Fold:
Amino acid sequence: MLNESQQMLAEMLFTMLRTTNTTIARLGDINIAEHIRPTWFLQMPNAESLSALGDAASHFRDGDGNNPDGDLLLQVASAFTPDELGAGVRAGGQLADGYKFSYPRRVGARIMSGWCGYATLGVGYARCLEVAVAVCATSLAAAKEEEAASLAAQAKEEEQD
Structure:
């Protein structure tokens, strides 16, 4: 759970995003802080360094077997054994604190830097709160937009029947 100052910052950032982005504005008054949690993760420097992890490198794959979205290779530290974490650090990885957030839909790797997302698993990670709020809000908005489009198509189909 975010502490009080983190919650205030997250809400302030979300409010700013809602006023400048019509898609995010459609989310309404959700509590964005409920979708973001502090965590520790293993950050690997590049795809080549993953080979040092052996089978544990699969933690850096999305549920569909693809690379994660975003520009970083992040995974929660609790997904690894102590030996795997050690191998990751020896291969140039680092243990870092950051944020875990809801990531129900892909938003594009170039939205901003400092994050990664596993859309099929519904989770994303970011090194800083500002990035977590922006990517999480964009992903939640994309999911809501997709749901609305699906409902509209379903209603149209029922209307034609």
Q: What stands out?
A: The radius of gyration is 18 Å.
